[in-house]
Amino acid sequence: MKITIVAVGKIKEKFYIQALAEYTKRLGRYCTLNVVEIPDEKAPENLSQAQMVDVLQKEGQKILSKVPSGALVVTMEIEGRTMTSEEFADYMDTCALNGQSHLCFIIGGSLGLHSDVKSISDLSLSFSSMTFPHQLFRILLLEQIYRAFRILRNEPYHK
């Protein structure tokens, strides 16, 4: 299976980079992983509605240009569907069984995702109604993908 993660923002902190490297290494035996970082647009605290739309649109265009052709698209959205780890593993398994061997997960910037990006989504997924830092969320996503592969192969890890 191929997994692409398209994420807005660059990881700078060493401890996040180390965690991402560890999960990337672990996932190497289960899938081909490609992480694409999109530069985030400058978004000062007090943006007008028009400025927010402009930032979302610019980030959205960059995201859309990086989505692999033919990939099944999963957008990570706070208002998306929630799943247990087992349900997520089943979802990935069903995708593979239905011939969707390439999943593309999209993580937006601090303002979320533009409607153009949401409109191409095959699944809108939420890990929680809480807000997480984007750098940490990328690690959470990799961990859940790794956990899903372990669940599907009945390998120890998931408890």
Automatic annotation (TrEMBL):
Pfam families: SPOUT_MTase (PF02590)
SUPFAM superfamilies: alpha/beta knot
Residues where S-adenosyl-L-methionine binds: 108, 127-132
Predominant cellular place of this UniProt entry's protein: cytoplasm
Gene Ontology, cellular component aspect: cytoplasm
EC numbers: 2.1.1.177
Keywords: Cytoplasm, Methyltransferase, rRNA processing, S-adenosyl-L-methionine, Transferase
Listed GO MF terms: rRNA (pseudouridine-N3-)-methyltransferase activity
Compartment(s): Cytoplasm
InterPro entries: Alpha/beta_knot_MTases (IPR029028), RlmH-like (IPR003742), tRNA_m1G_MTases_N (IPR029026)
NCBIfam families: PRK00103.1-3, tRNA_RlmH_YbeA
Protein role: Specifically methylates the pseudouridine at position 1915 (m3Psi1915) in 23S rRNA.
Quaternary data: Homodimer.
UniProt-recorded name of the protein: Ribosomal RNA large subunit methyltransferase H
The organism of origin for this protein: Alkalibacter rhizosphaerae
